[in-house]
Amino acid sequence: KTNNKTQRVVMSSDQIVPVSPRANTTGTSGTTPYKLIATASTNANVIKNSGGNLYSIVAIGLSSTVRFLKLYNKATVPIVGTDIPVMTIPIPANTQGAGISIPFSMGVNFPLGISIAITAGSADNDSVAILANEVLINLTFA
Predict the structure, then answer these.
(1) 125: closest CA among 117, 137, 135?
(2) How far apart, in whole angstroms, are the C-alpha atoms of residue 47 and residue 17?
(3) How far is CA 123 from each of CA 23, 60, 83, rounded to the nearest angstrom?
(4) Reduced 3-state DSSP string for 4-66
(5) How far is residue 51's CA from residue 31's CA, in Å, rounded to a whole number?
(6) How confident is the model at residue 111, as a pLDDT?
(7) What is the pLDDT of residues 2-40, one digit of tens each?
(8) Closest CA to 79 of 123, 38, 49, 45
């Protein structure tokens, strides 16, 4: 850290690029939690219907098949298979509960809004629904 407003990032070419954190403006605790236990669908949902930042993802797979969390820069429910996700994150398969935990200390900015879906396939145009209780998602956002 170089001061209270920038963070040093070292690139592969050893260039130092200042990265300015975004102010967290939600409440006194900073972020808002979101939890989803998957239903038998694509689980298309709006997390935040205005611009915001995503600070963490915890996704647990409870099936024997990899599933895919899709994140959309969108203030409305995504049209799964038509709208293009900005991030697609595989959720490991494991009937005992395999998962991922991704913290974004600086936050990932979604200027329009934060929406999600969960599908059986990784392709942007995949709209195959998953079964109920196959995935558990926890997010924090502001």
Answers:
(1) 117
(2) 31
(3) 33, 20, 11
(4) CCCEEEECCCCCEEEECCCCCCECCCECEEEEEECCCCCCCEEEECCCEEEEEEEEEECCCCC
(5) 14
(6) 98
(7) 444 444 444 444 444 343 345 545 445 589 999 999 999
(8) 45
